[in-house]
Write a structure and sequence with these properties.
This protein has helices spanning 8-28, 33-36, 52-55, 61-71, 93-102; strands at 77-82, 85-90. It is mostly helical and 120 residues long. It has 2 domains: 1-29; 31-120, no CATH class. A hairpin with a 2-residue loop joins strand 1 (77-82) and strand 2.
């Protein structure tokens, strides 16, 4: 017999549901970020964000971004959710030039890709 509740099953289910609910809220907290900013975005899916095929290992990251690029090629930029963090993919070449050259120091949280990885 449970201490606080009448059934051991309820005593197990209640904390389990609470843990699931808190985890769910943790993941989906920023899912409306791009919609709130009126920016074109890739709709996220719990718990993968907008890059489900990459997270599941079905699609290489570059091909995942290529699909996003092709789907939104008429936009200047597109928002997506990287698991749970809002991220942006710049599509317009002029905007990319501004971000990468003129305003680079304003974008401190950018990914860095090494075109020539070193052997371990």
């Amino acid at each position: 017999m449970g201490i606080f509740l009448d059934s051991d099953i309820v005593e197990f289910l209640l904390p389990s549901l609470l843990i699931f609910w808190v985890t769910y809220l943790y993941f989906v907290k920023d899912y409306g970020y791009w919609e709130d900013k009126n920016v074109a975005y890739v709709p996220p899916e719990f718990p993968f964000g907008s890059i489900k095929n990459h997270v599941l290992g079905k699609l290489y990251q570059g091909l995942c971004f290529d699909e996003i690029y092709k789907d939104f090629k008429n936009e200047r930029l597109v928002g997506y959710i990287n698991v749970r963090s809002p991220s942006v993919l710049v599509i317009d070449p002029e905007l990319a030039r501004l971000v990468l050259q003129k305003d680079f120091h304003h974008f401190v949280d950018h990914y860095s890709f090494d075109a020539n990885p070193k052997d371990p």
